[in-house]
UniProtKB/TrEMBL annotation:
This is Alpha/beta fold hydrolase. It comes from Thiothrix fructosivorans. Pfam families: UPF0227. PANTHER family: ESTERASE YQIA (PTHR35602:SF3), ESTERASE YQIA-RELATED (PTHR35602). It comes from the Bacteria. InterPro entries: AB_hydrolase_fold, UPF0227/Esterase_YqiA. Transmembrane segments: none annotated. GO terms for molecular function: hydrolase activity.
Length: 185
């Protein structure tokens, strides 16, 4: 099982989630793809992901993008899993604090919600001073990311396996090209 964890305000309809789904299907492994549409509250998202991990027949491999990378880092520590972290958010409680009080819209639907201090508090509660189990983490960054500072992730995950690519963007343009590598990790 591969559990894809999407980013902030995203969904299972995200390009990378769908690319992974098609990649697995082309290999006769469509049954391995799991990508829930996560609730916007971090505590609820972690509860849903934890339930999927705890009820899985085999321990899943995690792939997390952006905020999903932050969630994956938390979950791999709790459940001793492996994860590929793609342009992950580092300390998102601090990063997202400036948007408290703003209305947010999901990328793939018309659903909106107000981002509150509770969201920030829940993210801070999940944060780690330093990542645990760095050898269970494969960090994949593109230094053309204009949404998050790739240097923050490179420094924070300095003891993890790392691949840093020139150019690209926050969506990670090389995702299809690294799927074999992620699968072998």
């Amino acid at each position: 099982m591969i559990l894809y964890i999407h980013g902030f305000n995203s969904s299972s309809a995200a390009d990378k989630a769908q690319d992974l789904k098609h990649w697995l299907a082309a290999r006769g492994r469509a049954f391995e793809w799991i990508c829930p549409d996560l609730p916007h509250h971090p505590a609820e998202a972690i509860a849903l992901l934890s339930h999927l991990i705890e009820t899985a027949d085999t321990p899943p491999k995690l792939i997390g993008s952006s905020l999903g990378g932050f969630y994956a880092s938390h979950l791999l520590t709790r459940y001793d899993l492996k994860a590929a972290l793609i342009n992950p958010a580092v300390h998102p409680g601090l990063l997202l604090r400036p948007i408290v009080g703003t209305v947010q819209k999901y990328w793939h639907s018309d659903t909106t919600y107000t981002f509150t201090q509770q969201h920030v508090d829940e993210l801070i509660a999940l944060d780690q001073l330093a990542p645990a189990k760095p050898l269970n983490q494969l960090l994949l960054l593109e230094n053309g990311d204009k949404t998050l500072a790739w240097q923050d992730a490179a420094s924070y995950y300095r003891d993890a396996h790392q691949l840093i690519f020139q150019g690209g963007n926050h969506g990670f343009t090389r995702f299809k090209a690294v799927l074999d590598l992620i699968d072998q990790f």
